[in-house]
User: What shape does this take?
Amino acid sequence: MWKRRRALDGLDDDIRDHLEREIEEHVARGRTREEARRQALLAFGDPALVREDARAVWDWRWVTEVGQDLRYAVRSYARTPALAAVVIGTLALGIGANTAIFSVLDAVVLRPLPVREPDRLVELLSRYPGEPRMASFGWSAYEHYRDNNRVLSDLIAVGAGPIEVRPAGGAPEAVEGSYVTGNYFSALGLAPALGRLLDAQDDSDPAVAVLSWAYWQRRFGGDTGVPGRSIVVNDAPVTIVGVAPREFTGLLTGVSIEVWMPAQLLAQLGEGQRVGGPLLMGRLAPGVSRDRAQADLRVLDRWRVEELARSSGNSAWLEATLELESGRAGFSPVRDAFGSGLEALMLLVGVLLAIACINVAGLLLTRGMARRQEVAVRVALGAGRLRLLRQMLAESVLLAASGGVLGVLLAYVGAELLVDMLVSSRPLMRLPGPLEIPVEPDGRVLLFAVTIAVATGVLSGLAPACTAATTAPAVSLRGMGQIGERRSWRVLRNGLVVGQMALSVALLSATGLLVGHLARLQTSDLGFARDGRLLVRLDPSETGYSRQELGERYDTLLARLEGLPAIRSVTLSAVTPIQGGGAARFINVEGVEERPADRRYMSLNWVAPRYFETLGTPLVAGRDFQREDAHAQAPPVAIVNQALARRYFADRTPLGQRFTFDESDRVYEIVGVVGDAKYVDLRQPAPPTIYLNALQEGRGTFAEFSLHTRAAPMAALPAVRDAVRQVLGEDARVDTATTMADQIDATLVPERLTAWLSTAFGALGAGLAALGLYGQLAYAVARRAREIGLRTALGATRAGVTAMVLKSAGLLVGVGLVLGVPAAIVSTRLAAGILDGQPPNWAWPIAAAAVLMMTVALLATALPARGATRIDPATTLRAE
Amino acid sequence: MSTGRAATRDRLELLQGTLDLLILRTLRVGPAHGHAIAKAIERGSEDVLQVEQGSLYPALHRLIKRGWITFDEGTSENNRRAKYYRLTAKGRKQLAVETSRWDQLAKAIARILRPAAQD
Assistant: This one.
């Protein structure tokens, strides 16, 4: 720009001319030239600075003045630290909570496997009516599907089994391993990082292994000469053929596989070492949808169920159906346990973010209103409007950015804590090895939350300043004194408070639902006692006793334990309640005809005498098992629970009724009826259950001991250990010892996690809403100080003034609650939908949330109301 | 001035508009060089507005940039090169606007400042 060049060109001359003239003036007044020069410079200021400022006029001011804006912003917030802290903290919580929860949700539920086209992968599941889904198939079923289906381009099987690697000259080391079919890597579209991966050839010549990148680095230091080397796996030599790509850690979410070996090797392992059937994962053929594939595979599946029905002689198997699920995120017990809880939490933190944003908007709007006067004065004094807006922008951005940075930190810490809690539930997952959930705070959500939060901060910080800056100062200054707040602003700020109230009710209702869900599970009628029970599992494998001897020793041990002063009663059983496993069979009751389609599994447990007494399950009819039942001539006896009695005998007495199990003609007579007790899963109602006498059935070698203790269960443990050592010898080990309460709680980790976090989020939301209400009322009282003072002067009582404040608060809260109810219905519906099997009982959580919010609102009102009664008319009126 | 540079700048910020107005007002009488403008303002407001003479120059440049004043290169009586600043037509109009705004402002400020005790 020529103007700029010309103007700046003569600047030095101008300044010199100016100073010379000033000096000459001083000299003319009789000063020395030295003194004159000093005076001239004093009046002028630093010429270098002047030059810089004049130059800055022509420069991009943004560059030079942004720093200045920020400095000013920091100073302005230093004057109101509480406000700044609340805004920053609120934003940080909103951003941090959302990012943390989503990051974990992503890692556990959403993140696709690092393989080719993960969306085309499907997991095969089998469901028997009334039972949870099973992912376990036989190997023959795998081959059947693989060879005959026309909807999957590939079908792979993943088997589990122990893998113990012994490096040359080293000690054996248990590693995480998968036994996979030869098409595993090619179906997933993976390329080796080194050497080659498994292929179809390896199915017939299986003494090979593929290492994971991490294991290769850890055990072999990333040596590129590894392919071709031999290692000893499960006591047999196998050749390492290659290394899998770095990012691939297997198909089981939460478990990092270290070694892959051909499934063929699994068949060579001893019977006892095989763990269940394989998991099946298929890739949909091009152009085939999941529904179509499921329909086709179900037809194919008839062969399997007919085979099952034929071989078991049980036509009920025909009811089993095949289901396909998306396999994009791999097989995941973690997802099954935590997925729904995390989704519910995501819903809650979403609402929390909304409340946080509304709260920040309210606070900043209020602050903005209070500052309109300052803005108007500055505009009047000639400050550039853009400059002012930029100043306001700098302040808002500074706050929002601080909140954002803190939010990121919170997200990191939060995600880590969450993962720790998830990992603590490992026993629940019954995974072979450690659970690893790699979580990175998710960039997309972070960006989303930060954008929302910053936009809120900036818009609400800027809006009032904008209107003030664009209104002619005379207009805004004239009205500024006291009453002149524009109606629209007041409505907006009241609307924000109402919105927060409504959302808080919604948030608290959903929280109530989740907490109620946990409470119901915890206090649900278990059918057995929760407290005062010690559960001890023995490991007799090192003692060298035969089954016969072990049964006799256990009998002795039961008698010995019964004699301990700390023990009320003791028993043993095949499984203890909620242990996570169990048995089930079909029965045939004499005199009862059942259509094959109506047949269901009856849960089964083998228990010693005094089991019901020890566990606290009531005997409602008949008798308990006795030692005498074990005599050779004694007839086989059984005890059933009331659910089974209802199912088969309706109003007849079950006592004396007889039944057989499928595949056996041993006839059992029912001698007792006990109360219903939960069996495998707390979340399911107590199933129809049959108890057999462990001693009579020759099952006295189950090593699950349950003890009813007189004092704290764990305090009895040393005495129990002593007794075990005395009866079974030094080689007998106590495998695990826990209390019934702990065993129950361990299965509730997902629900507890959800309930705890939702409580925390609910409390935060309610607190923020209270803060919003408080801020709004305090501002209103301050604005109306003069009016209130006048009323007091004219004789209004303190009660009257309080009532006035309460009335305005009551209106806000009332409207908020009324609007909150439909929002709460939506949120509780969503939460209930996420928790499957949850009856939509949303009435009491909503009522409780509303009452809670009213209480909180009353507390938030108390302070401003008190402030209003303290207004001294003399002071406020004098200020007029 | 004793509170350091930041404070000085704030003061300039607040005075910026005022100083602009005073410059425009001074130049209405006729073209003048920088020193003469400073002296005229000083004479008019000595004790009320303590303007650093140097701050005049950034203000002059701002007004040039906005097109409210312009300048001619000239040689002063003692043979130094210097600029003679004068109002443009746009500047003349601006002066009228600013002056009426100033009057409104003065009244408004008076209204605020009187009950200022409440803050």
